Amino acid sequence: MAGHARYTAILDACVLYPVSVADALMSIAIAGLYAPKWTTEIELEWIRNLETARPDLVGRLDYRRDNMRDAIPDWEVPEFAWRPLAIGLKLPDAGDVHVLAAAIAGHADCIVTANLKDFPADVLAAHGLTAIHPDDFLIAQLDLDEITALTAFKEMRARSKRPPVTPDEFADILARNGLAATAERLRDAAALL
Fold first, then answer.
1. Together in a domain, 91 and 162
2. Residue-wise pLDDT tens digits, 129-147
3. Which element (helix H / strand E) includes 131?
């Protein structure tokens, strides 16, 4: 897994839904370790899912969406690029075909998703792609450029001001959101966070 901006990852809606997971992936991207991409369809999906789980957020997620877009100016795989490809693709969950189509159209190297079973390795391999869990993806980034990645995590933790969180609390938040291995690595580096 490359550790520079030419390495491109499609971010599935399920990794943009939990704020801490999305923030970790975006922080690492802003640090220049990879280039994230997604579609407006993926945006609509994470927003819809989050609003379903948290009705108090209905109509209040545009700010978060816009900040993500501003942070990654080249985020979008446009519909005109991925839509024609989706017609000939098949996955166990037809609702994920647009993600695979976006990965192909966006010249991605991988799909970062928590739903690995929905992206069979043989189907992805035919397109030169792999699916990777966000925890494994973040660990790979730490392995490739630990200083840059730890700096990104330190800046992410510093943004938590209401209330401020200790390095251990920060790691706990990540662990509760499916990033157990990343949390453990950050606990080991707590003095640097």
1. no
2. 999 999 999 999 999 999 9
3. strand 130-132
Q: Which residue range is the domain that position 170 belongs to?
A: 146-192
Any residues with CB less than 8 A from the CB of 190 and at least 6 apart, and which?
167, 168, 171
Residue 3 lies in a domain: no
Sheet holding 130-132, edge to edge: 35-37, 8-11, 110-112, 130-132
- What three-state secondary structure class fits 93? coil
Within a domain: 2? no
Residue 1 lies in a domain: no
Q: What is the pLDDT of residues 77-130, one digit of tens each?
A: 999 999 999 998 999 999 999 999 999 999 999 999 999 999 999 999 999 999
Structure tokens belonging to residue 112: 């970062």
| Packed helices 180-188 and 134-144: angle between N→C axes, nearest 10 degrees | 30
Measured CA to CA, the distance from residue 10 to residue 75 in angstroms comes to 9
